C-alpha cells in the first residue's frame, strides 16, 4: 500500500531519483538557475526550499542536515554564507518555476527553476548595440526587398 508515501519517483528506482534530485539541488545552488522538466523542477523545489531553511537557521545541526543532501562542500559553504543570509527576512517561497516551452525530442514540458532574487544575466548578448544593429539590418533587408519587388522582371 502507498499510504503517506510522498513525492514522485520520476520513472526511476528510488535511489536513482534521490541521487538525481541531490545533483539538481546542488546545481541550483551552484548556478542559482537550472533548466529541467517541469515535473523534476517541482520535485527539486521541495528539497531546495528545505535546504535554504536549514541555511537560514545556520547552526551546526542544520549544516550537518544540509550536508547529508548537498553533494559539493563548496556549494554547502555558499549556501550557508551567501544564500541563507540573503533570504533571512523572507518567510518562504525562495524559488521560482517558470515554464520554458516544450523540448523538441520528446515533447516534455520544460521549466526553469531559479532562486527568487537571482541576478541571472543571460550569456551571449554583450550590449544593446547588437540589438540596434539587428534592427538596422532588418530594416535594410526590407528596403531591399521592396526595391526588388518594385522592379519589373527582366
Q: Average pLDDT, to the nearest integer? A: 89
Secondary structure tally: strands: 3
- Topology order in helix (H) and strand (E) letters: HEHHHEEH
Number of helices: 5
* Helix-residue proportion: 40-55%
Globally, the shape reads: elongated
Describe the main β-sheet briefly.
3 strands, antiparallel
Rg over CA atoms: 23 Å
Query: Any low-confidence stretches, pLDDT <50, length ≥5?
Result: none
Strand content: 5-15%
| SSE-based structural type | alpha+beta
Report the span from N to C terminus: 80 Å
How are the strands of the largest sheet arranged?
A: 1-3-2
Which tags fit this structure?
single chain, 154 residues, alpha+beta, 5 helices, 3 strands
Describe this structure in words.
This protein has 154 residues and is α+β, with helices and mostly antiparallel strands. Helices cover 53% and strands 13% of the residues. The chain is built from five helices and three strands; from the N terminus they run αβαααββα. A three-stranded antiparallel β-sheet has the order 1-3-2. The model has no long low-confidence stretch (mean pLDDT 89). It has helices at residues 14-31, 38-57, 60-67, 73-86, 129-150; strands at residues 33-37, 95-102, 109-115.
Which helices and strands appear, and what pairs or packs with what?
Elements: H1 14-31, E1 33-37, H2 38-57, H3 60-67, H4 73-86, E2 95-102, E3 109-115, H5 129-150
Antiparallel strand pairs: 1-3, 2-3
Helix pairs in contact: 1-2, 1-4, 2-3, 2-4
Compose a concise summary of this entry:
The chain has 154 residues and is α+β, with helices and mostly antiparallel strands.
Amino acid at each position: 500500500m502507498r499510504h503517506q508515501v510522498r513525492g514522485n519517483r520520476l520513472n526511476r528506482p528510488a535511489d536513482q531519483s534521490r541521487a538525481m534530485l541531490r545533483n539538481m539541488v546542488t546545481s541550483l545552488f551552484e548556478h542559482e538557475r537550472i533548466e529541467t522538466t517541469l515535473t523534476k523542477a517541482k520535485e527539486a523545489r521541495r528539497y531546495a526550499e528545505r535546504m535554504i531553511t536549514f541555511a537560514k537557521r545556520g547552526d551546526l545541526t542544520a549544516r550537518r542536515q544540509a550536508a547529508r543532501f548537498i553533494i559539493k562542500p563548496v556549494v554547502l559553504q555558499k549556501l550557508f554564507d551567501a544564500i541563507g543570509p540573503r533570504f533571512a527576512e523572507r518567510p518562504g517561497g525562495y524559488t521560482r518555476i517558470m515554464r520554458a516551452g516544450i523540448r523538441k525530442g520528446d515533447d516534455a514540458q520544460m521549466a526553469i527553476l531559479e532562486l527568487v532574487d537571482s541576478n541571472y544575466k543571460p550569456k551571449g548578448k554583450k550590449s544593446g548595440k547588437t540589438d540596434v544593429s539587428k534592427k538596422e539590418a532588418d530594416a535594410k533587408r526590407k528596403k531591399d526587398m521592396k526595391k526588388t519587388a518594385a522592379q519589373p522582371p527582366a
